[in-house]
Amino acid sequence: MSDFTRFAIYYLPPEGGDLARFGAHWLGWDVDAACTIQQDPDLSALTETPRKYGFHATIKPPFRLKKGIDPTALADATRRFCAATPPIALAGLSVRCIGGFVALLPDGPTNQIDALAASCVETLDRFRARPAEAELAKRRAVGLTPEQDRNLHRWGYPHVMDEFRFHMTLSSRLVPTDRNHLTRIAKERLPALPQPFQIDELTLVGERKDGRFQTLHRYALSG
Fold first, then answer.
1. Which of 22, 90, 112, 121 has its CA 20 to 30 A from that of 197?
2. What b/e readout covers 24-53, taking b as 16+ CB neighbours within 10 angstroms?
3. What is the CATH number of the domain that holds 23?
4. CA 108/CA 128 separation, integer angstroms
């Protein structure tokens, strides 16, 4: 795992399932197989930004390891965290817009997934290297709220803790006409999803030298 520049904790849909296949073909990148997937040409330009990450929901955002830490220690800590954490359920997922892009968003209360994400961020924070000043400046340049800036300083990323919103990104940031068009297409192509929607495992992923992320280990939530 030393070949990876950053690591993150994702929720990924079950490998090989309908939702995972949909996401891989939608974005053009299979995060589990770590390979390019033939994509609808009409979607390519509209999904460029999320492509390299694969179809996922971020639980702990990408981070570099502290100097001297072996990636296997992170993997072991992630395994232990998941073994101590019970699975949860969302009422469902549906295609909606958030912050200028299209995503799968939870229906109903999100307090359980919010708490899980916060616990993951905090528990694994000891492995995270502090972001470089250039990275901090880049994130602040977009305009952060005071709470987001505090998160950036404390946790290395603005959209965690109370600012966390579970979402599975389906597009780049789009103008309203493209956003509405893509929302309609996504609703037409999205496979039927179970209700409730189970979150029963988390995945450690790594960022390759080409900037794309791939699955390293899946861990069942079994607490």
1. 121
2. bbbbbbbbbebeeeebeeebeebbeebbbb
3. 3.90.1140.10
4. 32
Residue 75 lies in a domain: yes
Instruction: Quick: pLDDT tens for 9-54.
Output: 999 999 999 999 999 999 999 999 999 999 999 999 999 999 999 9
- 3-class SS of residue 57: strand
Tell me how far the alpha carbon of residue 70 is from its chain's centroid. 23
129 belongs to a structural domain:
no
100-133, pLDDT tens digit by residue? 999 999 999 999 999 999 999 999 999 999 999 9
* 3-state secondary structure string across 114-181: HHHHHHHHHHCHHHECCCCHHHHHHHHHCCCCHHHHHHHHHHCCCCCHHHCCCCEECCCCCCHHHHHH
Amino acid at 19: L
Number of domains the chain is built from: 1
- The pLDDT, as a whole number, for residue 156 is 96
The whole-angstrom distance between residue 26's C-alpha and the CA centroid of its chain comes to 16
Q: Which domain holds residue 86?
A: 6-109+165-220
Residue 193 resides in a domain: yes
Tokens 């849909």 found at = 13
**What is the rounded distance in angstroms from the CA atom of residue 181 to the CA atom of residue 123?**
40
